[in-house]
Each structure stands twice: as structure tokens, then as C-alpha cells.
Write a structure and sequence with these properties.
mainly alpha; single chain; 0% strand
């Protein structure tokens, strides 16, 4: 179930990036076959291996293959970069809402096993959306923030993050918070739990399934 949830969330996320880039005038992703809902087109070998380790160890990080984008092909580079960057996050949230509605109105014919799968998929989509909004490269939030900042400030931000962004992300993942767990869990845990709780209240009028 966790594998299916991972594949679904990653696929719709990367597909949204590729589709939005194409709509903005950049065909780079299309030429590489990324405007696709086939999960195999979006799997990163190392990211998938890390998912297996994360699954076995109950903690870690995994990722899909980044969508290639050439901002020089955009009709409005800053605005289109913002749209492409945030498209994956919005699509994951939309997917989570739609799955919640399916779970609410079709739980009985689906049965408890498929219902549990939908619960896991909902949380995966929410977690991927929230995680990617962190303003640290290579996550989408860094490009969103850069697109919203004044041009000169954005240049300084991009320069700084190009040098230190990956180190900051690794530090967030490995440094433990005072109460236990990683710092990144302390940052993104509450919004993930809050959004997931709202969706589960929408999706689960019956107490037959416990959110994972």
C-alpha cells in the first residue's frame, strides 16, 4: 500500500510540473517523455532505493526524477516559473481532496482494504505537498519564494541557496530536535497532521478505518 501511495503521489506531482511547463511554452519535459502518468517515467533510481530504506526503517526521505525545465522558453519567465514550481504541490493537495471524497462516498462498495489504501494515499499526497513547500533547494518552495521576491533579492537568495541549500536540507533531515525526531519533522509535522486531520474528518464519517 505504501509503495502504491508513493508511486501515485510522485507521478501526479511530476506530471503536473511537466504539464504546466508545456503550457508555459517549454517543451523540454515533453521531449523527454515526462508529460506522462506512467509512474516509470518519473522514478529516480536512487530516490526509489531511498524510499525502500525509508519504508523499512520507518524514517527517511525519497524523491522522484526532477522534471527538466528551461525557463528561457517561458513566455513570462518569473510568473511561469512560479506556476510550474507550485503546480506539483497544488496537484497533490487536489488529489488528496478527491481521494477523501471518494473515500467518503464510496467506502462501502470499496471495502476496508481499499479504504485503508486511500487513507495512506491521502496522507502521502499531503506530506509530499507540505515537504516540497520548504524554501530550500532542490524543493519547489525555493523556486516559489524566488519568484515572489523582488528581482535583486531573488538573485541574492538564489546565489546563497545554490551554495548552501543542500547542506541546509541535509541538516534539517539529520539534526535531532530537542524533543526527539528530526528538525524537519518538527517543522512539517504539524501542517501535515492538520491538513490530513481535516481531510480525514471529511472522508471518514464512519469509524471503521484508522488513518495511518
Amino acid at each position: 500500500m505504501y509503495v502504491l501511495a508513493f508511486l501515485t503521489a510522485i507521478t501526479v506531482h511530476e506530471y503536473a510540473h511537466a504539464r504546466m511547463a508545456l503550457a508555459a511554452g517549454d517543451e523540454t519535459a515533453k521531449r523527454q517523455g515526462r508529460v506522462s502518468l506512467n509512474p516509470l517515467d518519473h522514478l529516480d533510481p536512487l530516490g526509489t532505493i531511498m524510499f525502500v530504506f525509508a519504508l523499512l526503517g520507518r524514517m527517511g526521505i525519497a524523491w522522484g526524477k526532477p522534471v527538466p525545465v528551461n525557463p528561457n522558453n517561458f513566455r513570462s519567465p518569473r510568473w511561469d516559473s512560479l506556476k510550474v514550481s507550485i503546480a506539483g504541490v497544488i496537484t497533490n493537495l487536489i488529489a488528496a481532496v478527491l481521494l477523501s471524497l471518494v473515500l467518503r462516498f464510496f467506502l462501502s462498495p470499496l471495502g476496508p482494504t481499499l479504504g485503508e489504501l486511500l487513507v495512506i494515499c491521502i496522507r502521502f499526497n499531503v506530506a509530499l505537498a507540505v515537504f516540497n513547500m520548504l524554501p530550500v533547494p532542490p524543493l519547489d518552495g525555493s523556486k516559489v519564494l524566488s519568484s515572489l521576491l523582488p528581482v535583486e533579492t531573488a538573485r541574492k537568495y538564489d546565489y546563497t541557496m545554490a551554495k548552501y541549500g543542500m547542506l541546509i536540507l541535509i541538516a534539517l533531515l539529520v539534526i535531532h530536535a530537542p524533543g526527539g525526531g528530526s528538525i524537519i519533522g518538527l517543522i512539517i509535522g504539524p501542517p501535515i497532521d492538520g491538513i490530513a486531520h481535516l481531510l480525514f474528518r471529511l472522508a471518514l464519517p464512519l469509524p471503521s478505518i484508522t488513518p495511518a
